[in-house]
Specification:
VC0802-like; alpha/beta; single chain; six-stranded mixed β-sheet; binds magnesium ion; Rossmann fold; 14 helices; binds adenosine-5'-triphosphate; elongated
């Protein structure tokens, strides 16, 4: 019965030229989301800047459209809309009754009809249409009653060349459309946190590239596949993800052989950051994103974060989860659908070589001095790591 979806989006702070960028990006993402849905759709914008996803095919998968629109950042809410071609009042009365009948299982609610006319040439005023249609609904469904001040159901009737009827508002994902805030490089591990961090940055309109460090043969193909799967889950929100897979084995071995074992984690982390930064520069990313939050583990004390951060020279490191508790992050990963995959028990390259008692308060100068033990080999190892980088693109249509 519904033939289009009215897209509601926030316009606060989005004015002038920015408004077009925002709207165009939003329309692009809606199209991307609907590509996966059975049916044909057109995404349009009217003169008033209102965006509609219109159904062009005879039939379509209604639930899948709702699911797809719920994944599009920038949408605050959306309304399934019924189209009526015959705009005569007699026909509208019939259609409004049919609408209420089909859209609401229980009719025990208060409502108000809210008519707007695009052309004032329509033979009745908006208030006359409100009254006529309200009466039709009341006659057909005596359980309903009118409440013009605080109705449970606000039925919108928009008279244009055709008539739009809608009332249901489905909450969207909020945020800003992808592509309105540049691109950043997500350090994506197989854990719970980093996919959530990626989601949060994407929610603010940031396009996500990702890098995953693995250590074959110490980490398995299944661990690698798990990260690809996580990137795919993320791509349902973030659009296609370019996932760079970097072989970290030899660098890790060199650190293990040449540096104090209680400093392994922090030194490894610094090399991950350095490599991620280079990949970010090469791929037009404006920052790094990690899943760290203060104090969660030894490598995330303020001192550790300071020393980790110091390895990055040219760009900011964004940590969207910085102030969240683990349980809050878990809840969010359940909500976005990455949790089940994240908890699969495959080995992680960081856990293989970790010391029993890693330093929790690393000193920058001490760590830098230890890293000098790598001087002879590190350039070659980094070169090798870049040369053998694999690119997996997930979520592309
Ligand atoms: P996560 O749940 O995201 O794995 P974590 O709680 O396990 O996080 P750490 O292992 O300390 O935390 O990792 C901190 C951050 O470093 C991760 O959130 C991620 O951004 C990055 N990171 C860790 N390991 C890897 C890896 N193998 N590949 C890419 N990034 C990684
Ligand atoms: Mg981890």
């Amino acid at each position: 019965m519904f033939r289009s979806f009215l897209i509601k989006y926030g316009e606060i702070g989005v004015k002038g030229k920015n408004r077009y960028i925002f709207e165009d990006a939003l329309m692009k993402q809606i199209k991307y989301g609907l590509k996966k849905v059975d049916g044909e759709f057109a995404v349009t914008k009217d003169k008033g800047g209102r965006i509609f996803a219109e159904v062009k095919s005879e039939t379509y998968d209604h639930d899948a459209v709702i699911e797809a629109l719920r994944h599009v950042f920038g949408i605050i809410a959306f309304c399934p809309v019924v189209h009526v071609d015959d705009t005569s009042i007699e026909n509208l009365k019939k259609e409004i009754v049919k609408y209420v009948d089909e859209a609401f299982e229980s009719k025990d609610f208060s409502f108000k009809i809210n008519t707007r006319r695009a052309h004032k040439s329509y033979p009745m005023t908006s208030m006359e249409v409100d009254a006529a249609l309200g009466e039709a609904v009341l006659n057909a469904f005596p359980e309903t009653h009118v409440d013009v001040h605080d109705p449970e159901v606000d039925i919108r009737v928009e008279i244009r060349d055709i008539v739009h009827i809608y009332s249901k508002e489905i909450p969207g994902a909020g945020g800003m459309p992808l592509g309105t805030n540049g691109k950043a490089m997500l350090l994506l591990s197989g854990g719970i946190d980093s996919p959530v961090a990626g989601y949060m940055a994407a929610k603010r309109g940031v396009i996500i590239d990702a890098v995953y460090f693995h250590a074959p043969p110490y980490t398995s193909d299944r661990a690698r596949q798990k990260v690809i799967d996580l990137a795919k889950l993320l791509s349902a929100f973030s659009g296609p993800v370019y996932l760079h897979i970097v072989n970290f084995t030899d660098i890790q071995m060199a650190i293990y052989e040449r540096c104090p074992h209680d400093e392994l984690t922090i030194i490894m982390r610094r090399y991950m950051m350095r490599i991620a930064e280079q990949l970010a520069l090469k791929n037009d990313c404006l920052g790094l994103i990690t899943g760290e939050s203060i104090g969660q583990v030894a490598s995330q004390t303020l001192q550790s974060l300071y020393v980790t951060d110091a390895a990055v020279e040219t760009m900011p490191v964004y940590r969207p989860l910085i102030g969240m508790d683990k349980q809050e992050i878990v809840n969010m990963s359940e909500k976005i659908g990455t949790y089940e995959t994240s908890i699969l028990p495959y080995e992680d390259c960081c856990t293989i070589f970790v010391a029993k008692h890693p330093v929790t308060k690393p000193k920058r100068q001490v760590i830098e001095r230890s890293e000098r033990n790598l001087d002879e080999v590190i350039d070659g190892l980094l070169e090798e790591a870049y040369a053998t980088e694999e690119l997996v693109i997930v979520g592309r249509e």
